Amino acid sequence: MSEVKNNSDDVAKASRKINGWKFMVLLTMTANVALSFKIFLYDPPVKHVPTRTCKEYSLASKAGDSAYYEQLAYEDALLFFNMTADTVGLSARVLLRRAAPTAHTKLKAWINDQAKEIKTKGYKFVFFQSDIYFDAPTQLAIVRGVQEIRLGSRPVGDPKEVLYGFRYKPETGQLLDIVDLGESK
């Protein structure tokens, strides 16, 4: 009789251990699902971080601060307005990687126009930045500078002082638009 009692005690202990393990597995799975939802719903999107920085900026807020947009515009202006026949392909690829999907068509057309002129005429586009600032009402990072078109090392025409505006998607830093604000006086 005592042997039967010992067996039933062993079965009860094994059953409690199995139930304990089932509970631990269920608890772990529930925690993983909860953490996955938290990460999916509450984590901020990845932002583009400029590689060349000349000012401190913050990514603490969802939208970033004015210095963040100025740094993005600084980097993009260096890339987009300094092109030769050799670099136009690279510039186009980087531009489209940096652009928001809604801006691809417009920016691709702009790059293709630039590329056609560069390749057919042998031009080099050169842009010297002189100032960058963020205009909060229009949400444009404005770059002021001198733009030259060169054939070889010789300028074609007179250099022009110009303004370009860059608009970015606040959550990710993706490029939305490049606005030609015309000649600067």
Automatic annotation (TrEMBL):
The chain crosses the membrane at residues 21-42. The lineage of its organism: Bacteria, Pseudomonadati, Pseudomonadota, Gammaproteobacteria, Aeromonadales. This is Putative conjugal transfer protein TraE. InterPro entries: Pilus_assembly_TraE. It holds the Pfam family TraE. Keywords: Membrane, Plasmid, Transmembrane, Transmembrane helix.
